[in-house]
Write a structure and sequence with these properties.
Residues 245-255 have a biased composition (Polar residues). Its main location: other. Residues 382-450 form the SB domain. Residues 11-20 have a biased composition (Pro residues). This protein is of the alpha+beta class. Helices cover 44% and strands 10% of the residues. It has helices at residues 23-35, 50-63, 145-148, 157-170, 282-365, 383-411, 416-460; strands at residues 67-75, 81-95, 98-108, 118-121, 127-129, 174-176. The strands form two sheets. A four-stranded antiparallel beta sheet has the order 1-2-3-4. A two-stranded antiparallel ribbon has the order 5-6. The longest helix is centred in the last third of the chain and has 84 residues, at 282-365.
């Protein structure tokens, strides 16, 4: 059996017939099949809320059989369109001891049940929305306090329908706009166009024509059958308090209020072409669910495979980044080694040149230095240098003598008393030599600085 089509606007098709034996069973089957679907064709509700949505709709249809669940295409304010659930039908109200049916549409938007549904008054072609109304704006949107005070999870559709019936009974939002008929029998503009196909409990009440009867004038039609001459254009905007709510047209009636075209909403039944609710072929349902399950499983596998490949790609990218960093390090090391190699080659050239110079000097002076004293091998260039050499030599000689005395004391070759006296004398002499050496070094440093300053002044000139 083919799936029922979705209607995207225009007049709604006739309501599907329901079996008189147990219509609630078919509604439950329809909701179970719809909310159990997966994949792109599923309704856009969260998985943890679908069971609660089903319970709300089932309880609503049990309490109000005139409201039946459907699916329809809803267009949001931003232009998005999505297939959503709605409860379409009528809400019975008790007005002047007569029962009337107010056609409404309750849309369950995507955040439902965490957010309140969207309720519209859905007038037929011969009905007009009352202006002004406390809870219904001219576009048909209903804003009763129960919607503004919606609290999840305590709020539900049954209490919402009861609240709508209570407020609409105080101030009906619709009235008929059909012109008065000369027929003495009142016209019955029955509003019992419930999608469930069930007749109203009171088959006679209807929204009769608004005839703007003159106050205080008796009703020329004594028909006891009540009809709703709602909002008869009286100055107060309320129905006439006559206990017989059926008023035929009066000869001196004023013209009716201008007709307002009824608001049309996209509606979609859950069955069409004479098919009963939820009577699809089990094989088709099983096939559709199996396909959806396979699509879901394939999507899950593709997601896992994609995550795995993304992880592998991230690993390869990280390895590539590490290799690039190592390449940069190796390049820097190669450049540093190349610089060191060039510096070493330069130093090698300098050493080779110095070696050649020394070897040449040795070849020239090798025979001259055989009988030369070591002390006479070096000659000082000035008096300060000669004095520094003498002080340094005396200092090192005293250091050697003190070391020899230490060894002699340890071996017992000299007594401890003479050792201390000799060490004291040698230490005093060594101190004087070191002080002289420091003064000579300071004098040499000063002379060198003066020489450098003199050269700098000559270069400046």
């Amino acid at each position: 059996m083919a799936r029922p089509p979705f209607f995207h606007g225009g007049s709604p098709p006739p309501p599907p017939p329901q079996p008189s034996s147990n219509p609630g069973q078919y509604i439950q089957q329809f909701l179970s099949n719809l909310l159990s679907q997966r994949g792109p064709s599923s309704v856009p509700y969260s998985e943890d809320s679908k069971w609660l949505i089903r319970q709300h709709l089932v309880t609503l249809t049990e309490s109000y059989p005139s409201l039946a669940p459907k699916t329809a295409l809803y267009t949001h304010a931003d232009g998005r369109s999505s297939t959503l659930l709605q409860a379409d039908g009528t809400v019975p109200i008790l007005f002047h001891s007569a029962t009337y049916n107010i056609p409404v549409v309750i849309w369950l938007l995507e955040p439902y049940p965490r957010r309140a549904p969207l309720v519209y008054v859905n007038p037929t072609r011969d009905m007009v929305i009352k202006r002004p109304h406390s809870f219904v704006d001219p576009s048909g949107i209903v804003s009763v306090p129960y919607l503004s005070n919606w609290v999840y999870p305590s709020s539900n559709l049954v209490d919402l329908a009861r609240d709508l019936a209570r407020h609409f009974a105080r101030d009906p939002p619709l009235y008929s706009r059909r012109p008065p008929a000369p027929n003495p029998n009142p016209s019955f503009a029955s509003l019992n166009d419930s999608v469930s196909g069930r007749p109203n409990q009171n088959p006679n009440p209807s929204f009769a024509s608004s005839n703007s009867s003159v106050p205080g004038r008796p009703n020329p039609n004594p028909n006891p059958n009540p009809s709703f001459s709602a909002l008869n254009n009286s100055p107060s905007g309320w129905p006439d308090p006559n206990p017989n709510p059926s008023f035929a047209s009066l000869g001196n009636s004023v013209s009716v209020r201008p007709a307002i075209p009824p608001r049309s909403y996209p509606q979609s039944p859950y069955g069409s072409g004479g098919r009963q609710v939820g009577t699809e072929d089990l094989a088709e349902v099983f096939k559709r669910n199996a396909v959806n399950k396979l699509v879901e499983s394939l999507s899950s596998d593709i997601g896992v495979l994609r995550k795995t490949r993304e992880g592998e790609m991230e690993g390869v990218v990280s390895v590539q980044a590490a290799l690039r960093e190592r390449e940069e390090r190796i390049g820097r090391g190669m450049r540093e080694m190349q610089g060191e190699k060039e510096a070493l080659e330069h130093q090698l050239q300098m050493v080779s040149m110095n070696t050649d110079v020394l070897e040449g000097w040795l070849r020239e002076n090798g025979g001259k230095v055989k009988n030369v004293d070591v002390d006479d091998a070096f000659e000082c260039c000035d008096v300060l240098s000669k004095q520094m050499i003498e002080c340094t030599a005396a200092d090192l000689a005293i250091e050697d003598v003190v070391y020899a005395l230490d060894k002699a004391v340890q071996e017992g070759s000299i007594a401890f008393g003479p050792y201390l006296r000799n060490v004291r004398l040698l230490s005093r002499e060594q101190f004087f030599h070191r002080a002289t050496n420091s003064k000579v070094r300071a004098a040499q440093m000063g002379a060198q600085i003066s020489s450098m300053a003199a050269r700098a002044s000559q270069l400046a000139v």
